[in-house]
Predict the 3D structure of the following.
Amino acid sequence: MSLSSLPAELVRQIIESATSTLYLPEMYSERQETLCSLCLVSRRFLLLARPILYELVRIGPPRQLDLLLDTVEESAGRTTLSSLVFRDAGGLGIDWDFDRLAQLSRHTLRSLVLEIARMERLDLCFLQFFPGLSRCLLTLCVNAHSFPA
């Protein structure tokens, strides 16, 4: 029996078992690299691994959010955001397109993580764009160390 003859659900479980579904800052890069590699195995793996790749996304500056939202829009429903991590969230501001993010992830966002390098004043006004946030887990991570480049 070859891998290509396995049902899609089983192949997806194999892919999911190769990575963590939880956000672990120290494992995030390895998780994404593994999923990117799996996307290159075959078209079938691409179709099954890419949605998992975009289920958990960590972003930094506003430009990364714009690129992420472009990708989600272009995927025509094949890509959903369920966990989003804002790295160095102390810089969250009006430059971020939260309205567009809320439109694209209104029914799928389950976890929102705000990472900040040091305890500082944090404006959470952007949460108003997520009316369904009661279903969403909001986590605030404060690191005593600054983030690596």
Summary: The chain has five helices and four strands.
